[in-house]
From TrEMBL:
Molecular function as annotated in GO: 2 iron, 2 sulfur cluster binding; electron transfer activity; metal ion binding
GO biological process: P450-containing electron transport chain
Cofactor: [2Fe-2S] cluster
Alphabetical keyword list: 2Fe-2S, Iron, Iron-sulfur, Metal-binding
The keyword Metal-binding is assigned to this record: yes
GO cellular component term of the entry, any: mitochondrion
Native organism: Prymnesium parvum (Toxic golden alga)
Name of the protein in question: Uncharacterized protein
Length: 147
């Protein structure tokens, strides 16, 4: 009898709030300067902007950042500026603050950064970022054939 009541309660809960793909995705627009192309794709909340771009086959080089570097876990953090993006101002203000390692990596390409520069690997998608627009500058380093 208890199991029957639990099953009815679970069914009622699931019927009252169906899961929607729209609840877990947002719209992300990439302006690819080298290709002179603008592409809008869905992004999964919780993914990084880099994961989203690579999932959809966009030519955004780079590797996913390890956990954010700090003194408690010594995560490796981002490793290159290949995934440098310029974030539209209205969305830049909604991003989490930049970590030490991201600042360090962007410092290596200082002559090409702007006031809204970030690394795509360090931008975690949230519902507040729905509609985010970023530009991948032509000046990004390309380490594809780096030896």
């Amino acid at each position: 009898m208890l199991a029957s009541l639990a099953n009815r309660g679970a069914r009622r809960f699931l019927a009252s709030k169906p899961a929607m793909v729209a609840d877990s995705t947002i719209s992300c627009t990439f302006i690819l300067a080298k290709k002179k192309q603008k592409v809008t794709v869905p992004g999964q909340i919780g993914w990084s902007l880099l994961e989203t771009a690579q999932h959809h086959g966009l030519p955004v080089p780079g590797t996913q950042a390890d956990t954010k570097w700090d003194y408690s876990d010594f995560g490796e953090g981002p490793s290159s500026a290949e995934d440098h993006v310029v974030v539209q101002r209205e969305y830049f203000d909604k991003l989490e603050p930049m970590g030490f390692q991201e600042c360090h990596v962007l410092g290596e390409v200082e002559e090409h950064i702007t006031g809204t520069s970030r690394l795509a690997s360090c931008i975690k998608l949230t519902k507040e970022l729905d509609g985010i627009t970023v530009m991948l500058p032509e000046t990004n380093p390309d380490l594809t054939n780096y030896c």
